[in-house]
Every structure is written in C-alpha cells, then in structure tokens.
Amino acid sequence: MTVHDPALERLAELGRTPAPEGLLEAVLSRTGTGYWYAEAPSPLGPVLIAHGPHGIAGIRLAADGAEAFEAWFRAEQGVVIRPEPELPEGILESFEARVAGRRRVVPLDFGGRTPFQQSVLRAAVTIPRGQVRTYGWVAREIGHPAAVRAVGTALRRNPIPLIVPCHRVLPSDLHLGQYSCGGPEKKRAALLSEGLDLERLEGLAAAGVRYLGSDTTHVFCTPSCADAVRITPRHEVRFRSASEALAAGYRPCHHCRPVAAAA
After folding, report:
1. CB burial class (10 A; 0-12, 13-18, 19+) of residue 42?
2. Helices 184-193, 198-206: crossing angle, 10 deg rounding
3. What crossing angle do the helices spanning 115-125 and 148-156 adopt, rounded to 10°?
4. Collapsed DSSP state (helix, strand, coil) of residue 55
5. Domain boundaries, the chain
6. Which residues are annotated as catalytic?
7. CA angle 121, 124, 129 (to 5 degrees)
8. What's the whole-model pTM score?
9. Is the pLDDT score of 72 beyond 50?
C-alpha cells in the first residue's frame, strides 16, 4: 500500500525544479567564499582585481579583457572566478591605499606559489614607494644571494602587481627590464607616478654608477634611497660597486641595505 505524504511530494518536486539563476553566486557571496573580480582605476589605467576568502588574489590590465583575465586566473589558481558589479569597499580601499603609498595591511592570496616564490613577493612589498632595488637585492634579503635568476622568474609571474610592487625591482645595471603588467612602458609609468626621478637614475646607470655616498656621513646608498636623494651635489660621491664603497671606508645605509648585513 502506497502512502501519499504531501510534504515528501513537495520536496520531490523541489528537487526537480532548476535552481534560480544567480543562486550559486548569491550563496557564495553571502558566505564569503568563491573568487570574484571587478574593475578599478590605477596609475596604469583600469585594472581587474580578483579577490577571495584569503584576500586579493590577482591584478591585470582591464584592456586585456575579462575573458583573458578569467582564463589567466583559472590557470594560476585552478578555480573559477566570477565577475561582480563592483569591488567590496574594503578591497577597493586597501588597493587604493597601497597604491598611494599609505601603510595598510592588505590580505594577499598567493595560492599556488612555492614558499620561495612567496618570500620573493613579500620582500618586494617592503620596497618603499618611489624607490627601486635590484633582483640581487631581493635575493640577498630572502637569504638566497645566488638565486637571482629564480627571483626574476618569481617576479615575472607576480600575480598581484602594484600591491606587490615588482615594478620597483630592476636588473643590476639599473635599466627598467621587463614587467608582467604591460611591459617596460607600463613599468616606467608606474615608477613615474610614484615620483621616481627616472631621468637621473638612467643617467647614473649609463655612467656605470650603482651607489651614492655622502662625504659627510661616509654612508653609501642605492641611488633612489631617500637618504641618497638628500645628498647635495657638493657632498655626493659616486661608486661603481659596493666593494668600491666599502674599500673607500663608507658604511652601508641601514635603510636601503645596499649590501648584506654581514658585510
């Protein structure tokens, strides 16, 4: 004998009914799960910013298109990402603050990166706005001075440019080099937007100058260090290498750390 239970029949009917369009997205958004992206302005023009449960996870130029961005993110993170009308207020404020050079802790999602690659990206975050360092500097900072090539590879694959400022890292000859977020011209634009005197830096690089010292303090710095910028021409001493500066009796700056601490 079959017993008809109206409640069970309604439940069975519900199971046969397609879910309303957008239900999955609404549930993911309400529970703070899933990955989302929207457009935001930047010094390089509009960018697409991805974020998820662990923070900002990806940034790329909007000019490349949403489809390309979604494909790139799936390849990088191995998950689907969905568009949203606008970024959450906290994500947008964090992005704008960091780009403007204001100190703010921003949760970052380096999903899929090795511990070495993450250490490279975190070292790049410490470079002050409007200053530059070299790949060799980053390698020394993370305790792997011989891994310059691997540092370059990690920065070329930086998933979160502008917030992780790989544009502030240059080759040892202080020329611009490549940039994952639009190439050398975008790298130049990013540095100029931060107030870096690129013309002077490139002039020093062309002359073979790698470090600047002050004959009053006998301290030497990387050329873009805030301390180096304050050296007047009368007291400026130019060096082609750190060993030359050390041999002349100059001490490394403790702000820009031009050589390893042991030196």
Report:
1. buried
2. 120
3. 80
4. strand
5. 208-263
6. 166
7. 145
8. 0.85
9. yes
